[in-house]
Please model this.
Amino acid sequence: MKRLEKAIKIAKILEDLYPTTPIPLNHKDSYTLLVAVMLSAQTTDKKVNEVTPNLFKLADNPHSMSKLNIKKIELIIKQIGLAPTKARNLHNLSKKIIAEGGMRPDWNFLEQLPGVGHKTASVVMSQWYGIPAFPVDTHIHRLASRWGLSKAKNVIMTENDLKKIWPKILWNKLHIQIIFFGREYCPARNHNMLKCPICSWASTRKRIKFEMSL
Model:
């Protein structure tokens, strides 16, 4: 099966499984979404959703966050990975946002904020501002490889590959759908690819044999 045909079939399966795609991170505006996504690096959305209520009670906007002591922020988010670094970045990016006049849908503005890379900026642009983007994390990178949609060695290259095979109008939703699918059907380890709704036909026999032997 050609890659484009495979992509069309995968998109249909994902749409049937996940016709609605609520954002898994709790937030109320672009700033709180930015904070939640930044905190989610190297931890789970569930864990982030456990710490953000207490954090947002004290600071749900750049002005309040910039006034919090970094150690105070760290104490609130200590359950998640890289808490010291993330606390410092939260404090500094909040000051930067204030200095720049507030949040706005601008790639350069978002990507130069402390602790905010391309993936985090892409999530905010796509899920809050509705601007077409295809955020690719290590999980989507892994699934794209499993499904034979990309042979890229890094997430940026995988993002470029996926943008070429799916129309722009689908990007924002597909990003969430793939994440949902990965969690429910396609885990990184102990995955029975022969029973997977997508891997069972999209992956090569060689790939299935290799992963099943791990």
In short: The chain is about 60% helix and 0% strand. Residues 31 and 61 are 7 Å apart (CA to CA). Residues 83-99 form the longest helix (17 residues).
